[in-house]
Design a protein that fits this description.
It is a single chain. This protein is an alpha/beta fold and about 280 residues long. It has one domain: Rossmann fold (3-Layer(aba) Sandwich), CATH 3.40.50.300. It has eleven helices and seven strands. The strands form two sheets. Strands 2-3-1-4-7 form a five-stranded parallel beta sheet, with helices on both faces. Strands 5-6 form a two-stranded antiparallel ribbon. Helix 4 packs across helix 5, helix 6 packs parallel to helix 7 and helix 8 packs across helix 9. About 15% of the residues have low confidence.
């Protein structure tokens, strides 16, 4: 009996020692993993900081171009997206498109995106306080230092006045307003055949500006989409809204000697040349 008790005691001591060693090893491994994770995080933060500090120099062709903030006006389907891409490439400006900002927030299902979606699904315009909040955040982006293309904003005089206030606080101003004019009949044909690359906002048309491969974005090779609001019924509502609310602000900018009207039924290159001359003056 004594021998059995002694053996039981020895086994109990061994088990206790093994448990203690296992616990210490587990704590050491956890501390080691935590330290490794912390080092990796610090390294990642340092790399991010270095990347932020080492900004890419502007191409020489861009540095010689004028730095301006411009507004592109025009009804849905007038070619604002196409001309914006030209200005981004030619002048190294950034594009602030209310449509892109709204779609991005809708895709990410942000609170502001879900609120905006209710209005967009009905073909209505998103309220000013939602749009102004998106614009205010976008204009401070470092990529917009050389110049900004406002596409789809402002849509009324209230937004125009709010934009002037935002820019003035940053020591900037609106330098030129370009209105792309298109007859309604042409707009319906353009819109119903329009295809969009959702990520970049690049716009194509099955007849007027087709992609190299049907249904595929020329740059990324990703599929193109046909927007849900690019139908005749919704388009009519959007054009009516544009005519009622946006067209009157052309008078606002005309009074400030900033407005240039361009016939957007011309060939894309002709329109680009007109815009180029206007901004180079």
């Amino acid at each position: 009996m004594r021998i059995q008790n002694a053996l039981f005691l020895i086994i109990l001591i061994i088990c206790s020692l093994f448990s203690l060693l296992s616990s210490s090893s587990s704590k050491f491994n956890k501390r080691s993993k935590a330290n490794t994770k912390q080092l990796n995080n610090e390294k990642s933060q340092n790399n991010q900081s270095n990347n932020n500090q080492s900004t890419q120099p502007q191409p020489q062709s861009c540095s010689s171009k004028p730095q301006k903030n411009i507004i592109l006006l025009g009804p849905p389907g007038s070619g604002k997206g196409t001309q914006s891409n030209f200005l981004i490439d030619e002048f190294c400006y950034c594009q602030i498109s209310t449509g892109d900002l709204l779609r991005d927030n809708i895709v990410r299902q942000t609170s502001i995106g879900l609120k905006a979606k209710e209005f967009m699904d009905k073909g209505g315009m998103v309220p000013d306080h939602i749009i102004n909040k998106l614009i205010k955040k976008a204009v401070i982006s470092p990529s917009c230092e050389r110049g900004i293309i406002f596409d789809g904003y402002p849509r009324n005089q209230s937004q125009a006045e709010h934009l002037e206030l935002i820019l003035s606080k940053l020591g900037k101003k609106v330098d030129k307003v370009i209105e792309l004019q298109v007859d309604n009949k042409v707009l319906f044909e353009r819109i119903t055949g329009r295809m969009i690359h959702l990520t970049s906002g690049r716009s194509y048309h099955i007849k007027f500006n087709p992609p190299k491969v049907e249904g595929i974005d020329d740059v990324t090779g990703e599929p193109l989409i046909h927007r849900n609001d690019d139908d005749v019924k919704t388009l009519k509502i959007r054009i009516d809204n544009y005519n009622q609310k946006t067209v009157p602000i052309t008078k606002y900018y005309h009074g400030r000697n900033l407005l240039k009207m361009i016939d957007a039924t011309q060939k894309i290159k002709v329109i680009q040349d007109e815009i180029y001359r206007e901004l180079s003056n």
